[in-house]
Amino acid sequence: MILSRAARSNLIRAKKLMRLPTKARASTVAATTAENPPPAEGSLPGLASSALLLSTRDAALRTPGIAWLDEPDSADRETRKMNTYQAIRDAMSNALTRDDSAVVFGEDVAFGGVFRCTMGLAEEFGRERVFNTPLTEQGIAGFSIGLAAMGQTAIAEIQFGDYIFPAFDQLVNEAAKFRFRSGGKFDLGKLTIRAPTMSVGHGGLYHSQSPEGFFMAAAGLKIVIPRSPIQAKGLLMASIEDPNPVLFFEPKILYRSAVEQVPTSAYTLPLSRAEILKPGTDLTILSWGTPIYTAETAMNILASPPPSLERIIPKSIRNASVELIDLRTILPWDVETVVESVKKTRRLVILHEAGKIGGVGSDIASTVTERCFLRMEAPVRRVTGWDTPVPLQYEKFYIPDAIRMVDAMVETLTY
Amino acid sequence: MRRAGISVLRASRTISRASYQTAALQNLTASKHGNLPGSPASPLTTRLHFFNSVLDNQQIPTFRILDGAGQVIEGAEVPELDRDSARKLYEVMMMLPALDNVLYNSQRQGKISFYMTSHGEEASIVGSAAALEPTDEVLGQYREMGVLVWRGFKLDNIMAQCFGNELDAATKGRQMPVHFSSPELHFHTISSPLATQIPQAAGVAYALKRDPERRGKSCAICYFGEGAASEGDFHAGLGIASTLGGPLIYFCRNNGFAISTPAAEQYSGDGIASRGPGYGMDTIRVDGNDALAVYAAVKEARRRAVEGSKAVLVEAMSYRVGHHSTSDDSFAYRAKQEVEDWKKIDNPHHRLRKYLESKGWWTAEDEETTRSTQKKAILAAFQGAEKLPKPSLENLFEDVYDTLPWNLVEQRDELKKLLGKYGEIWEPWRTERAKFKNAGNEFPGADESPKVSPIMRLIAALPILGVLIAAPAATRPILPANFRAVDGTAPDDHPVCDGCTPANNSGLDPTHAAEGLLAAGAVAGTTAIGLTAIRNSGLNGGFVDDFKRGDLRTIFSLKKPHDVMLREQESRANAAAAAARNAEWTLHNLPIDY
């Protein structure tokens, strides 16, 4: 249909009012073509509108818990727009600069890494410090343990969390028990192992897993999962500095999609401290990694449901005050913050991508129930992936999405 | 036929985008057919031949210097070993079976829980240890105590680890016997899972390569058996070590058995040595029962490893004379005669002794003296270790992380409370407790559960007070004679009691008061509410327990029960003593000169 310029702009304005998508220009929404294939690590376009991502310098510098590693005075701190993989790269660059003994290694890290987390590091620090290993996760893990046992800072990369299992023996039987079994004489404070985790939408069984549950029982390890670039940089630096071996799982779908103004100086964020992202009084949502944004979407839907969902969300609960907590460290987890929150709100919904049975949610639910039993208004509810491997074509029904979260919140609030 | 004019246009497949290897386009082989573009050293051939070194009778030879009778073989080059070094070699080789016999039998007598001997492998272990520098990093499997003995690990420490007593600095009683650990002697912690040390050794070697103070000077050595060499970690470790580099000796003790599995069922290839070339490693197979050959081989291996900053593989062939461990009876799967025969025809001790005697460095008298001195020292250390208590129970919870996380603080407190409740009346715990240091106060450093201030006790008591006063049918409770307000009383002005039971304490006759109170059914429900109020307020659980014991003093007196006060006093004293003991613990390590 041929429209005059005026008519065309009217139409666009009208569509905007109706909240329908205007015809996208090629540069804003990348049409997937041979020259422009969809990114392997997936993308989460909704993140652009998330209120949880900090897009201004001031907000970024006021991130709670920041501890600067260099001069404490923060007047002249700078930030730079970074996505998650750039922030992670920045953290490793800081670590390599500050600590001569630090090395970064894993499969394909020398050219920049399959997720670009090590771009340029080999060029900057040399191939003795940033290097490829042969294709063996158990070898990478064992090698990193030997290096760290000698007091040198080892930052190992496992290419996908799905492939961490050959390293399970080294991590659980050796790394976790290293200090305990040697009467405290040896330790692996210098060990950090990073791996991409969680779903992308098209990863299927072996590019989507959340393995943190398997390691929760490995007393001696720490497990950390960031939700954003600022968090990733700070928590990774903290993990490297922490005097215990740390598994650092990075939600891969956030590598490109999550963008923030990230402070350029070196800083840490505290481990084993959960962060209350939105305070509330009627219901607590606890999550980590990618599902934090699912929770945010669900909270928005609850507060102002679109027309199609209006009839299922009772008006009485639409102004429920929901508290959103990012757990951040899965082991040892911040029981104090969570229990204090549930004592206040009396309702808890835990959200994670991993399956229900044996998931991290089980441990948290049980501990919270032990401590808050008499106060609970509803049983602790877990919204999780189903107890199946991640099935490719069915992913949209497997991964807990916002509507499942909304449903759980409605049921919990009206229990 | 050469196809002239064809030049290789595309890059070798071994070149990556960043091109870290030069394009090897020339032919390095003697083949007239040339080579593939990416493989300059592999000659092309038209012969359809499968090679198999096992079937082609091309097994890797075994290096040896002394024959079975301890004589230097014609043409063999004896390594440079002076009299003292050679004697030390033999003495340490003698110490091992002396220790093994005592400790193995002590397990049979139930004094230690487990043990593994090194019978038959003394030459492999001590010969290799002797070829290293004292600061070379050692990653063992479990049968390498000889390396520690060579380096001067004291008998007291061996005994301490095997008994798991309070002087076990290596593992603080947490690990099974023979799982030694000594950073002072550069001996990494032994762990039960097999072969895990193999890729770790690659990391240790890389660290040595990176360390400017140790590069070109130190080496790492990694011991493992031929059975462990089947594990994935073996292949991972050798692959990583050979590509990333670092000075490292991989030392395989091929002793013929993995528990009951003979080597013939463990692999089909030419032993473990044949795998070395698979990783591009310099490899040697050596007679593991020939101490001089092992010494020479490891010396050369070390030179190559350090100078080339690379991994080298040594396979030492020997025979496991003893059982796998105290949990194994090897005569279930091999003939006793076979073992006796081996001990006669291929005895590492006899062979070295004959050599020493031939040099005039050892006599029968030396043998006798050494044997009795060693035995005496071992028995003295054994008897000393036997008497010592196990480490303080709080070591159960420590060192999981650098500090105790909340769950371990709570669990430690829970165990403490359970011991308080049942430690005297539950038989298994009562006798077990007595074996530990600080028996009776097993957590000297632990804080009490949250202290309850007198004000809080009063506030918590208010619901009950109010309820009880309001209940008309109840017997009016008798306030104890020593009731007073918040005063921070010292234990001293608490009346002395005999045995500290509620009946003979504080002037109040709590039995009557308690009976009166509880007999009044009307208040039973309200006191339950009061109890719930207290419980929900999160105060010290002991507070509620005291009430349930019928001890009203805790509610009305605002003074802590006598036994609680005694316990607190004791724990303050114990904390001070524990601090002194902790200092002592550290001191113990110093005179025991590692």
Read across the widest sheet of chain B, the strand sequence of neighbours is: 3-9-10-6-5-4
Q: Kindly, what is the distance between the CA atoms of the first and last residues of chain B, rounded to a whole number of angstroms?
A: 69 Å
Oligomer: heterodimer
Radius of gyration of chain B (CA) equals 35 Å
Roughly what fraction of the amino acids of chain A lie in strands? Answer: 15-25%
Task: Tell me how many strands of chain A there are.
Answer: 16
DSSP strand count of chain B: 10
Number of helices of chain B: 19
Q: Give me the secondary-structure category of chain A.
A: alpha/beta
- Helical content band of chain B: 40-55%
Q: Report on the biggest sheet of chain B.
A: 6 strands, parallel
Strand order of the largest sheet of chain A: 4-3-5-6-8-7-14
Mean pLDDT of chain B: 81
- Main β-sheet of chain A: number of strands, strand sense, barrel status? 7 strands, mixed
Round the Cα radius of gyration of chain A to an integer and report it: 22 Å
- Roughly what fraction of the amino acids of chain B lie in strands? 5-15%
- Through-space gap between termini of chain A: 53 Å
Average pLDDT of chain A, rounded to a whole number, is 93
Order of helices and strands of chain B: EEEHHEHHHEHEEEHEHEHHHHHHHHHHH
Helix segment tally of chain A: 15
Describe this structure in words.
The complex is a heterodimer of chains A (415) and B (594). With 415 residues, chain A is α/β, with parallel strands linked by helices. Helices cover 33% and strands 17% of the residues of chain A. In chain A, helix 11 links the parallel strand 12 and strand 13. Chain A starts with a helix and ends with a helix. In chain B, helix 6 (232-244) links the parallel strand 5 and strand 6. By secondary structure, chain B is an alpha/beta fold. The longest helix of chain B is centred in the C-terminal third of the chain and has 28 residues, at 562-589. The chains are: A alpha/beta (415), B alpha/beta (594). At the A-B interface, helix 5, helix 6 and helix 7 of A face helix 5 and helix 6 of B.
